[in-house]
Amino acid sequence: MSGAGLWIFHKSAHMTTLTSPHDLLAAVPFLVGYHPTNSIVVIALHEETIGMAMRIDYPEEVDLDQIDSLATHLIREDADSALVVAYVPDAVFDSEYLLSPIRDAIAMRGILLRECLEVRGDRWRSTICGDDGCCPPEGNPMPSHEESRVAAEQVAKGQPLPYGSVEEMRASLAPAGIDPALEKALDEVEGIDYDGDEVLAHQREGAIAVNEIAQEFAEKGISEDTQKIATLLVRLHDLHVRDYAMGITNEENLDTVWAMWRWLMRIAPDGYVAPVATLFAVTSYERGDGALAQKALERAFDDDSKYPLARLLRRSFAAGWPPSSFAQMRADLHPKVCAKLFGEE
Q: Fewer beta carbons within 10 Å, N or C terminal of the chain?
């Protein structure tokens, strides 16, 4: 695969019906979270409903294993039809060397290809339409995303506008700067001595900090308790505390918890980022923000290249785990973690 690998995005709960190439072109940035370039995007449809979108870097050479992986994910998604949009690099003169085997792989699996678009700069054309009247060889002008029906409906549903580029998305997750007061508070938090008698007390302290900061975010959208934030960041290195933190998410508080982990990830100093970044990655994936989830994992690996949960999540995202699987994982795990930290009550 290419350097960025396969990115999978689930957005069916938020996406409207696509009725034209203009709708499709307007929908793709909402599906992947930013306006893509040099990319191949494959979208699964099941009974007219979008199941997932997959994005790969536009490869320089045909990689049959990569194409097979795309088509296999369509089967796993129970897709009965598919859409393909190729954002072709300027240096590529003819995209058929790549699009033809992609179309063949989809057809060989009995999946109907509803549309296959090629985007070059500010123009697009259909590669499966033979009518030069509606699909001239030079292509059609790209529609205005801001004025599209799809964009209007997505914004009305509370979906944020896509980032202008993947670089802009990455910048939105960059460190916010060093807070000397937080660094001083971190030095004052006692680490857990797993050979000592205070292990459970320290783990409970971390879980309580999770609850209290989440409550502050629900009420004010921020936490101003530097000592409590420091306690949380230190205690999240404990697997029980981190798993407890993962388990507090539910359908009602998902957006609040997502905002909390994002903020904490940006203010966390080096050495404290990986646990928070993985928690943000999980909540982003559950919200359908697969690109943000991938970028959060990059932050985790930058902080700790061998962080086990980040490695597990990278494999899970690439395998196309549905977001609901994480809710089920929490339902199974959280009661056990609570019993470990606080007893059966």
A: C
Q: Are residues 187 and 330 in the same domain?
A: yes
Confidence (pTM): 0.80
- Indicate the pairing of strand 49-57 with strand 81-87: unpaired
* Residue linked to tokens 């007893």: 343
- Give the C-alpha separation, 235 to 185, whole Å: 13
CA–centroid distance for 72 within its chain: 20
Buried b (16+ CB within 10 A) or exposed e, 173-197: beeeeeeeebeebbeebeebeeeee
Could you give the 3-state DSSP secondary structure of residue 25?
helix
Q: How far apart are CA 249 and CA 327, in angstroms?
A: 8
Environment class of residue 160 by beta-carbon count within 10 Å: exposed (0-12), middle (13-18) or buried (19+)? exposed
Percent with pLDDT over 70 in the chain: 94
- Reading across the β-sheet that carries 49-57, which strands appear in turn? 7-9, 49-57, 39-46, 81-87, 112-120, 123-126, 140-141
What's the rounded Cα separation, in Å, for the pair 79 and 100? 20
pLDDT per position as a tens digit, 24-66 = 998 899 888 889 999 999 999 988 888 788 888 998 888 898 8
The closest alpha carbon to 6, from 65, 76, 61, belongs to 65
Mean of all residue pLDDT scores within the chain: 88
Question: Which segments of 115-253 does DSSP mark as H helices, in order?
Answer: 149-156, 166-171, 180-188, 199-220, 226-235, 239-247
Rounded Cα gap, residues 321 and 76, in angstroms: 10
In-domain check, residue 86: yes
How does pLDDT run across 157-195, given as a tens digit for each residue?
777 788 888 889 888 889 988 899 999 999 999 999 999
| Residue 276 in domain | yes
pLDDT at residue 114 above 70? yes
